[in-house]
């Protein structure tokens, strides 16, 4: 492919992006590298990015830049899934979860440069099939995590105006309101076709990556290109249980695992019953009642059953050369 045949496309959320600043950066990088004129696609509430990514490919894009929150990234990725066109992440919003898990720069100018000069890395994609209460089924992709239970209820209860003002701190308010109700979910689950088992939990998270907002390492063994999903069920019993989870996630995963001495110390500790870890290529759960579920930080309504599987190495991500 000659340089002139290379063409970028930008799929952007006009509410979250400074379009003038982004266009200026793109124009400079495009000219410096001798690429063809960049294509631009704004998202809307009805079309949040997937159809724009598909159209970008149809118009000859050789890389698609996603500029918006984690929801925009997920939608654009859904349009690029199982194609040869890479996704480039442009930091925006409060999350940038995939970029953080891939340890990519959150500097906008550097990210734009990467789009035109970087190389491609292949990662896994998670696929979730959700069964609604009326029996209908829908399929979605996710890049970071899917969740059912408290975390999805929290997202549903988050005040959007408060989130605009204080960012992720708005979730503290949402968690408090979510915990007021009966936060437990009951389900029967199976991993890789194993015999179904019953479980009660506050939340179940299915991860392609392991790090949450605030640099919290919830799934320490999760790798974005290992061909498996990492699952954790949070099952605290009262305040002590929540303290155990906090110690595990913040102290053990966030501090001890980052040093050789700390990892040695962890080898002598016992796993806590409040956290149940599982791994597999497929995770199936049937819920006792319709429950809220989320994908990459966005609520998707309720489901009575979820079937999650990994599609190994099916997405190209543009990273620095």
From TrEMBL:
Belongs to the diacylglycerol/lipid kinase family. The lineage of its organism: Bacteria, Bacillati, Actinomycetota, Actinomycetes, Micrococcales. Keywords: ATP-binding, Kinase, Lipid biosynthesis, Lipid metabolism, Nucleotide-binding, Phospholipid biosynthesis, Phospholipid metabolism, Transferase. Gene3D superfamilies: 2.60.200.40, Probable inorganic polyphosphate/atp-NAD kinase, domain 1. GO terms for cellular component: plasma membrane. One of its GO terms (molecular function) is kinase activity. Its cofactor is Mg(2+). Residues 3-132 form the DAGKc domain. GO terms for biological process: phospholipid biosynthetic process. This is Diacylglycerol kinase. It comes from the Bacteria. InterPro entries: ATP-NAD_kinase_N, Diacylglycerol_kinase_cat_dom, Lipid_Phosphate_FormReg, NAD/diacylglycerol_kinase_sf, YegS/DAGK_C.
């Amino acid at each position: 492919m000659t340089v002139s045949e290379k063409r970028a496309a930008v799929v952007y959320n006009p509410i979250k992006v400074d379009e003038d600043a982004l266009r200026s950066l793109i124009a400079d990088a495009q000219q410096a590298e001798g690429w063809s004129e960049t294509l631009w696609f704004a998202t809307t509430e009805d079309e949040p990015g997937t159809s724009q990514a598909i159209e970008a490919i149809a118009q000859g894009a050789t890389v698609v830049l996603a500029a918006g929150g984690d929801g925009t990234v997920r939608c654009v990725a859904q349009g690029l899934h199982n194609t040869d066109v890479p996704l480039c992440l442009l930091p925006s919003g409060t999350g940038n979860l995939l970029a953080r898990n891939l340890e990519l720069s959150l500097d906008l100018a550097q990210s734009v440069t990467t789009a035109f000069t970087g190389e491609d890395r292949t990662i896994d994609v998670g696929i979730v099939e959700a069964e609604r209460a009326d029996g209908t089924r829908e399929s979605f992709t996710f890049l970071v995590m899917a969740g059912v239970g408290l975390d999805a209820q929290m997202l549903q209860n988050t005040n959007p105006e408060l989130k605009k003002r204080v960012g992720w701190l708005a979730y503290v308010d949402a968690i408090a309101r979510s915990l007021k109700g009966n936060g437990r979910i009951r389900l029967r689950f199976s991993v890789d076709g194993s015999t179904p088992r019953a479980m009660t939990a506050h939340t179940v998270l299915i991860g392609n990556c392991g790090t949450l907002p605030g640099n919290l390492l919830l799934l320490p063994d999760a790798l974005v290109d290992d061909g498996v999903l990492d699952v954790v069920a949070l099952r605290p019993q009262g305040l002590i249980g929540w303290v155990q989870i906090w110690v595990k996630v913040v102290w053990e995963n966030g501090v001890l695992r980052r040093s050789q001495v700390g990892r040695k110390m962890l080898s002598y500790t016992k796993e806590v019953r409040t956290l149940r870890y599982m791994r597999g290529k497929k995770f199936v759960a049937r819920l006792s009642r319709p429950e809220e579920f989320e994908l990459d930080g966005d609520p998707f309504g309720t489901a009575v059953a979820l079937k999650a599987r990994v599609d190994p190495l099916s997405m190209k991500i543009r990273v620095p050369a």
